[in-house]
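On clarity, I found the account of how folds are encoded harder to follow than it need be. Since the whole study asks how a given chain folds, the encoding of that fold should be made plain. For illustration, here is how one protein appears when written out as sequence plus structure tokens:

:::
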Amino acid sequence: MDVSQTNLPPDAGPSNEGSFESTRLSYVSSAHLAAAIAGEVEKTTRDREVVIAGASLFTDLTNLEAVDLELRQLTAAYSTLADSWNEAGHSRPKKNVVAKNASIASEEGKEALVAAPAAFTATHAVIDTGLELVKLFQKDVSTRGVDTKFDPLAFLIELGQALLNVEAKASKVWILDLFVPDENRDDDKSVLGLVKALQRAKAEAWSTIAPAVSALTALDVALEDAIRDADKERTKTLTQEMQQLRRDLQPVSGQLTLIDKRFGALEKRWMETDAASGLSILARLLRVESLRARDCLFLHAAVVASGGQIKTIRSLWRSLFSGQQIAFRGGAVVRWALLGHDKSFIAGGVKTGTTASRQ
């Protein structure tokens, strides 16, 4: 018998419950995928520490290397300028020039340094698009696709638990977004250690030319006195000494100012907050630096896409006795890659899975 849908009792169809059920099934599918990944890597991760993270981990690791290089370059620039000034024999001003105004000293270059650095913005996005399913309409059957929202952290947690559930389980599992360092490294090779070395180099560079800056200030005061006393000979001598000292100072002080601006711009970037994580760039760098110091493997994983399907079967017979039948389906597509401590690729791939239910 040909049953037209217009002859059926009015029905609003699946409500938000259908969307929730498809979303729930997507999470169930992702848990199965996490277990499958753990099973593939367990021989490698057995008794090892494993760090699980999205793509942001590798962005932060790359930025950490770049920050290390820039801090060392700035420190070397300050030290080179200080050395070149001393080698040119400008470390001490002439006594007869500054004797009258020995108490005058310039504070240029001695301002306190802010120890809170900031870093390159690293941005990342977790793909969260619904699977595009073809809608099929028939007289008694309708199928529609459902976009499911997926929390990327939930999959990483499932994967972490799966690594601890397998027979050859990992010794420790760290999830980047849930990791808080107990303490920050402070050795010479750490970010904070390099910042302290840079601060010392900056202070030493400005201290090196500070006597000359003080002498220039003293000369300026002495010149005003000479002009007021109408002492032409002394005025001429002081003018020549000031011009020479300015010529000596200008190249070094100009370059020190440029380096200061580079350092200040770096500090400003480090103070910026990453919108995705809510952490400052500095906090992200210190976090990943702490993980890098561990002898661990890196497991990257992310949900590429998720989606669902609702299938409704209607007939006059069902409407009269049992009502419509609704079937739900939810699935996910995930990517993963296992890397060694040196970030070399060990294994990886893309996995897909779906789960169905009916009511």
DSSP finds eight helices and eight strands in the chain. Confidence is low (pLDDT under 50) at residues 1-15, 91-139. The chain has one domain: 13-358. Helices lie at 16-45, 56-87, 95-98, 152-165, 191-228, 232-270, 281-292, 316-321.
